[in-house]
Amino acid sequence: EALAGTGCGDAVKALAAVVRDKNDTACVRKRAAKALAGTGNGHAVKALATVVQDLGDELDLREVVAEALAGTGNGHAVKALAAVVRNKNDTVCVRKRAAEALAGTGNGHAVKALATVVQDLGDELDLREVVAEALAGTGCGDAVKALAAVVRDKNDTACVRKRAAKALAGTGN
To answer: How many degrees, rounded to 5, is the angle at CA 110 between CA 75 and CA 36?
Structure first.
């Protein structure tokens, strides 16, 4: 955490290395990820965006990094989180948290990414439902268009379409 406060490029590299280091405890690695995100430093966000992909099957840590990224609202974070949502190798839980995190940023780029992701998810209905709800919370025009497309998509289950319709109604648009 002290390293993060310096904002120095070497500190960012060192913290990113800690997050990746499987010899460190999960607690230490999670704190390093949060510290990186807390710097607000563009290099730190880029490092976290790379780290979230490098973590592979370390799902708990990926979830923490995804949440840390979301807190930054940075464009690199948005791309990385959208990639997590699309990644079929991640658990549904990690992917849902990334979708919710994206929507929570309030970032226009995040909403556009989610609007694209909801279509990319195809037959992953549980996740489409979560993304639709996340989109609804933004109230953005791109979100409204994406939700309307889900409502019209006859390939979705009635439940997904109904939830998207309720979400759409809740946007106030």
So the answer is: 45
pLDDT of 73 higher than 80: no
Type of residue at 96: K
What is the pLDDT, as a whole number, of residue 7? Answer: 54
DSSP 24: S
Measure the CA angle with vertex 158, ends 120 and 109; round to 5°.
30
Radius of gyration, CA atoms only, the chain: 17
- Give the separation between CA 145 and CA 28, rounded to whole angstroms: 42
Rounded CA separation 125/115 (Å): 15
Listed residue (39, 68, 38) closest to 51, CA to CA: 68
Burial 73-91 (b: 16+ CB within 10 A, else e): bbbbbbebbbbbbbeeebe
Q: What length is written for the chain?
A: 173
Residues 63, 15: Cα–Cα separation, whole Å: 17
Q: Where are the domains of the chain?
A: 2-105, 124-173
pTM above 0.70, yes or no: no
Model pLDDT for residues 116-142, shown as the tens digit of each residue: 777 777 777 778 777 777 777 776 777
**How many whole angstroms separate alpha carbon 159 and alpha carbon 35?**
40
